[in-house]
Amino acid sequence: MHPIRPREGGVNLRFGLLGPVELHRNGRPVPLGTPKQRALLTALLLEPNRVVSIDRLVTAVWDAEPPRFAVANVRTYVNRLRGTIGDGDRLTARQPGYVLAVRDGELDVTEFADALRQGRRSLSAGRPDAALRQLSTALTRWRGAPAEDVPRSAALGPRLDALTEQRCLALEALAEARLMLGEHADAVAELRETVAAHPTRERLWGALMLALYRTGDAAAALAAYGQARAFLAEELGVEPGPELAGLHRGILNRDPALRADPQAPATAAVTAAITATVPAPGRLVGRERELKEVVAAIGAGPPRPVAVHGPAGVGKSALARHAVRTAAPGFPGGVHHVDLRSLPRPGPYETLARLLGRLGLADDEIAADLDDALHQLRTATAARRALVLLDNVTGEEQVRPLLAGCPDCRFVVTSRRMLAALDDVEHLPLAPLADDAAYDLLTRLCGRDRVDRAQAGRVARLCDNLPLALEIAGKRLAARREWTPEAFADMLAGEEHRLDLLTCGDLSVRAAIDLDYQALRRSGGTAGDGALALFHRLGERGLADCGPAAAAGLLGSDRRTASAALGRLADLRLMEPLAPGHYRMNGLTRLYAREIAPTT
After folding, report:
1. 309 neighbors 417 (Cβ within 8 angstroms)
2. Domain range for residue 202?
3. Most-buried pick from 210, 378, 512, 546 (CB within 10 A)?
4. Handedness of CA 59, 60, 64, 68 (dihedral sign)
5. How confident is the model at residue 62 (pLDDT cuts 50, 70, 90)?
6. Cα(363)–Cα(373) distance, rounded to whole angstroms?
7. What is the number of structural domains in the chain?
8. Which of these, 523, 453, 441, lies nearest to 478 by C-alpha position?
9. Domain holding 105: CATH number?
10. Which residues form the OmpR/PhoB-type domain (predicted)?
11. Residue 201 backbone phi and psi in degrees, to 5
């Protein structure tokens, strides 16, 4: 349904939901009446300029069984609200319900969302100074909990919770901007207050730990981790996630990658620690065939690297970790894990140096020359075969010297795109889960008694059947027992909030897609520039499907240039080729593209 454009003219109104519900008319506060009338206004303001059906208004106003004359009562509340607003043209009947016209600059929710979107774009573009201003502006719109003076009905509660989630995301982005700017001392004071209000947000704890460490107070950073761990255990019954635990290990080891780098995003520093043993991979559902293939490829014949590739969130790392753990008994030299995403500048030497460190060499013992370091690796693994997982590789040049220079090691590589330029590699693609596996994953996370196949199927489709998105959805349903799967699916169906909802602690679909977008921004060249422009054009228009002819029209170019741009997007897994001349962006990537598309 297309938004209804409000008419010009009328009195000067100002609506507020980010705190107690409020209305100002011509600069003066207006009493809003009973809680039910405020609930009615809240339901209308959550969907400004759109028709809200009478049935939905009834469920918003009455949490329990509505009274016999609920529809008539809603009409009475609407008439009273129309008089309260004082502009009869603003609240009008429109089948099958009512629409409240809200103009630009009249609703704090819209202003907050716009400023937050601008701040995220600035962060993605590497402009933390602009992001800090925009995110600070966004957060000034908040006066308290959203609609805090309105009873939480089953219809309103999830929508208001989504606004709270957006506020937390803004706070996390603000902390990242401060760390990128080197404002560590300022960030500490701000973050202590923030984590006190949101003690289960692992990204906020990670930002506080990193800020403390960079101000020279490693002891306080380690103490903050202890506090975070205690809160998570008490509130959720879980241990800190791998990102926060990895940061803790990095601080203990004084990892140089945690030092302040104004050019690097704070989230990269938070994930900088790498463990010598492979981290626990978590659940693996619906991947039995793929797991057997990877394990068989690891153990088959002469040493041959195994490369698993697939789009963001498809579960490459989880599959690879399960596979190397399964194959570990056959490697007396041990299993070693290097996550290239956590390296500041992951070239072949940096990857090799980190691997040698995991094999026991001190920093001052690692040769400064790549060939000499490769000799050290061959010597260290000659007597005892080792299995090495190189996770989140972005290009062949990062790993080619290692794969070719150490024949006694077995390598498993994960990457978004297929590393086609590597020689003698077993390539294994990974696709989204089948419907049955998606249902199984959701029910394992939130309980089979809570979700039926129809509800699970709807949630899975909105998650593009991607394991990362499904894991987040399942964990959120498990944590929020008051949310029904049907209500959660309704929330996900609202495209403006879907990426916000698919965030849980250190898990984020948005962050996973952002890695591909950052790679696109760095790609350069004619194809790279065209691909970046095409990604923005598709985002502006909300398009998912595209071919060379349509791409040429969007770019104002010839078909050859457009085909190269589409190919580059496919290489980076931001689009998938479905047939010759037909490419498609999955639903979550399309929403990300719309979110970061430059405004004109």
Report:
1. yes
2. 194-254
3. 210
4. negative
5. confident
6. 12
7. 5
8. 441
9. 1.10.10.10
10. 3-102
11. -90, 105
